[in-house]
């Protein structure tokens, strides 16, 4: 014997327990009232169904009273679109009422469907009779909506989009509203003739108004040109509107790819092994044929963790991080490609940080029990020992320390390339020229101590000149910096000019600039003299006026001209040719604040450095042949003489070449015939 199912147990309980108001042994529908929202509903007839006749009746309401009309036991098991099925059982019978029609919304010209979303609202009665005596009654209120999902047959016919080169996709672009007439859209087929009469005189013109294939200017029958050239209509195109440049058919001929620089950075795939050695700027490769990366600053000022290290490019960066966003970099057991397919191991030295205050810039006040700390990397210093195009040795110093939750760490990463011939920490490059990012070498050859400097400001704090520091000018790096000078309203203009000039001249403590990075102080030919252009002064007096001073030299302009004069082992050798220093003057005027209570104003002074690259040798002058040939270059001139007979050339693709050639020969014959007939001797010969 199996365990009885849940349905059987439910039927036994329903039979054993009488409903409220039902006497033991009476027959009744359970439930006796159903609100129906689907196509099928079930109920149970409790009692002996032997000799009981079941029927279903559509019960219309009385129009006056709203009550259901009286019914009798003469019905059947089918009424309209409804079917009644009774499954008899022991003292319990299952009664099922189902709908035999579809619940889909009607398509155009369709029948036996739902004309509206609320598909059916009807009242049903199911009667249980023994003879003419009614034993029980079931009332069903049906309120059924149409199906929102499509369950019909899907057509295999796909929408065919025409080729845009030959046929326009939209023949009426101004038809924007489906099922309604768009005002002023004369091509809208939904606009009746009566509606079109209201705006027939103000229809949308052009392509938007439905004229998607207008006559073009080169067409012989076109009269829409505002400025008709002299050659029209002698040189024009005679073709149908199906062959039009608005559809692009005229541009199916040979075209040239425009050489427009792309703003996208090309995706670098496998870096490849540099078996021939490294050149300046080449990324350093690891044994796994991947880039050797060290965190560096991007152009946006943010730190990039997977930035490749470039050969012979030094850098010193600082990156902010915390314990939550901290990530370990490239492991130090990675072997590096020397440039000749050999691999070397990094020499790593680990040290502990003694003074955390130099690296921890901010700390939140947290309870000691809540602080989570971790041993992390505070700084990494890489030294690459190189010779020729190869890397000989890599020394790494790693500083570790404890970083706690809530603290902000300033990590430092430095990369320095040292020549194998370096002595006492001073690098002697085998390439005598400048490398990008190296300090420009300056000298004061008129003093006993020739060591000079060429610097720009590095403001700090409020940006005042009193607290600003300086840094050296780096070769190949255009820079712009400045600071703010506090000026009193009673400041003497001559004193102000001298003070500003003194601060600007303090940046250039040199008379000469080294042509190369290894310029010798004892050889004057290794240096170029700085050309100084004194600031312009108009000697204009302001009289008794206060708070205004003209011709203040507030801008220092440093222009450095350099050239690539050769290469040493594949590395470009760059040399400085000339240096010029000039000043730009401004009119300082006291800026009065609210109430003019403050007697101090601010004067911003700036310094800019610009590197200008010129050819190492003057370019060759343009020959007379090149000047004449430039007149016939179609890419440089609007008038292209080689394409004078354009329809007869291979460039014209509007018609087959054989037809163009035949028409061209016919045109040449007519021109020759007109020339012969215009001569006087032809008229004499004709008269004879």
TrEMBL record:
UniProt keyword list: Cilium biogenesis/degradation, Glycoprotein, Signal
Cellular component, GO annotation: MKS complex
Pfam families: DUF1619_N, TCTN_DUF1619
Residue ranges annotated for the Tectonic-1-3 domain, each copy included: 276-419, 433-614
Signal peptide stretch: 1-21
Tectonic-1-3 N-terminal domain sequence ranges: 148-256
Domain of life where this protein originates: Eukaryota
Keyword DNA-binding: no
KW Signal (keyword) present: yes
Protein's GO biological process: cilium assembly; protein localization to ciliary transition zone; smoothened signaling pathway
Similarity-based family: Belongs to the tectonic family.
Subunit relationships: Part of the tectonic-like complex (also named B9 complex).
Protein name: Tectonic family member 2
Organism: Serinus canaria
Lineage, highest ranks first: Eukaryota, Metazoa, Chordata, Craniata, Vertebrata
Name of the gene this protein is made from: TCTN2
